[in-house]
Amino acid sequence: MLSNLLRQLTAPTRPPLTETDARLAIGALLVRVARADGEYAPEEIDRIDRILAKQFDLSPFDATKMRRECEEIEAEAPDTVRFTRAIKESVALEKREGVIRAMWEVVLTDGDRDPEEDTLMRMVAPLLGLTDQDSNRIRLSLTRQ
């Protein structure tokens, strides 16, 4: 499964991702934003596990297993642009808003917005078909909770 998704991400032309591969790409994007500041904190790992469990209706065990796969994919995957392009082509807009929400949840987990995380969020939102304003609105909704 890992090699299939990586092949698809690097192929010059490709069909939309399967639902399973789209989920893995989303999870890998969450790992990427968590690692963006050079620190992959236990709180971020726990947050990713909880997001995966909730979004994909997984048990805690299955969410952890999926996150570990996503970590491998993220480490081997090409640039972020390919991730986001594959997700945009395979996931409906309202679910892509959920991807941005989940990414912001990971970024805000440690209470510190790092410049590298902010840069990645500014890059990813438009690549997923959302505006900076959409991303900011989503972030603000999380900070008001």
Automatic annotation (TrEMBL):
<dbReference type="InterPro" id="IPR007791">
    <property type="entry name" value="DjlA_N"/>
</dbReference>
<feature type="domain" description="Co-chaperone DjlA N-terminal">
    <location>
        <begin position="23"/>
        <end position="139"/>
    </location>
</feature>
<dbReference type="InterPro" id="IPR029024">
    <property type="entry name" value="TerB-like"/>
</dbReference>
<dbReference type="Pfam" id="PF05099">
    <property type="entry name" value="TerB"/>
</dbReference>
<protein>
    <submittedName>
        <fullName>TerB family tellurite resistance protein</fullName>
    </submittedName>
</protein>
